[in-house]
Amino acid sequence: MTAKRTIFLCGLLWLGCGQDLQDRDTEPTDVATPAAPPEGPAPIVQQPATGAANAAAIELGRLLFFDPVLSGDRDISCSTCHHPAFAWGDGRRLSVGTGGTGLGPARVASSTSPHVTTRNSMTVLNVGLNGVTARDRGPDPATAPMFWDHRVRSLETQAAQPILALDEMRGSRFTEDTIFPEVEGRLRAVPDYVTRFSAAFGAQPISRDTITRAIASFERTLVERDSSFDRNALTAQQQRGRDEFARHGCPGCHNGPMFSDYRLHRLGVSGLTTGVRAPSLRGVTKTGPYMHDGSLPNLDAVLQFYGRVDRRLDPALGGVRGFSPTEAADLKAFLEALSDGAFETTVPSSLPSGLPVGGVTR
Predict the structure, then answer these.
(1) N or C, which end of the chain is more exposed by having fewer CB within 10 Å?
(2) Is the same domain home to 28 and 169?
């Protein structure tokens, strides 16, 4: 794989544009609202100021992503909550962190010391395109929005957060101040990792910076491609669903080449009064359950929710209306056309640390 994965994005006449209800200084301000179907080259995953990653950095990042050596108790990895078998998510309502057993929907929290997150695990598929709202460009990688609440910017910054989080990978044996020094020492004690970091970053030491840069380099290669929508190969039903998508106000939040305005919107899900991101709809049929808290188990539940949503909560909801059973079937067929592309699914057979891949024992 190369660091510059591209996806061919065909056009759709988008209606409307989402509006955020947060401080505009903390949100993207350049939201494209194409007046005609996009043409020309596809968006390209933008590279950070340090330049495109080399193959050694990408492979190092792939190994680190699956290696539980990064977790406090060496029992969980990034891939535990972002696994290719679940479209780089975990298929759970809320993710089970350190101390849990199993993988995906079958994962179970520890009965003695449960660590469960408060948010649904967002897929990292296409995460390198976060913030792309026009067909041929995206934000500076240093300012690309991350997480449901956009609380951090850039993939490099995002990559550190699960390692630092008590209920994700850190656990209770280490603090936010001590976990990275511990992880750095572990990696320096593995000769294969020492060699790989040298190949990827030269004389730069194994550090929080190089660890997160390697992981981000790998994540930028996780791009879905060749969906039916991208190939302009929609069936008659999918074309009807595309039209229903526009008529029912969905592009108020889900517009542009990634089917997201990358703005924060108030929906009132589970009583939440703050804004959460309108997620990309690419791959959406594979990444349930839905909403920031995973409270809606399937797309039927999502469509029912939007049929009764309080449209006063957010200006972008003004044109939203419910779907009849026939319209819902057409819309789901269209969303499948956004979700049938190919993406990387390789899982390492072993790790330099010698630990079980993903921290999952079978």
Answers:
(1) C
(2) no
Tell me whether residue 4 is in a domain.
no
Q: How many domains does the chain have?
A: 2
Asked if residue 78 and residue 197 are part of one domain, the reply reads yes
Q: With bands split at pLDDT 50, 70 and 90, how would you rate the model's confidence at 199?
A: very high
End residue of a domain, out of 195, 223, 251: 223
Parent domain of 29:
24-45+228-337
DSSP for residue 153? E
Domain co-membership, 157 together with 260: no
pLDDT higher than 50, residue 11? no
Lowest mean pLDDT among 182-186, 228-232, 296-300: 228-232
Q: What is the DSSP letter of 170?
A: I
Residue 16 above 80 pLDDT? Answer: no
What Å distances lie between residue 256 and 22, 25, 58, 183, 311, CA to CA? 20, 21, 28, 39, 22
Residue 112 is part of a domain; what is its CATH number? 1.10.760.10
In a domain, 106, yes or no: yes
H helix intervals, the chain: 55-66, 78-81, 155-164, 179-188, 191-201, 208-219, 236-247, 299-308, 325-337
Among the candidates 174, 195, 223, a domain finishes at 223
CA distance 164 to 166: 7
Per the CB < 8 A criterion, the answer to whether 186 and 315 are in contact is no
pLDDT digits (tens, 9 = 90+) for 343-354: 999 999 999 999
pLDDT of residue 45: 79
Q: HSE (CB half, 13 Å, CA atoms) of 271?
A: 0
342: β partners: 225
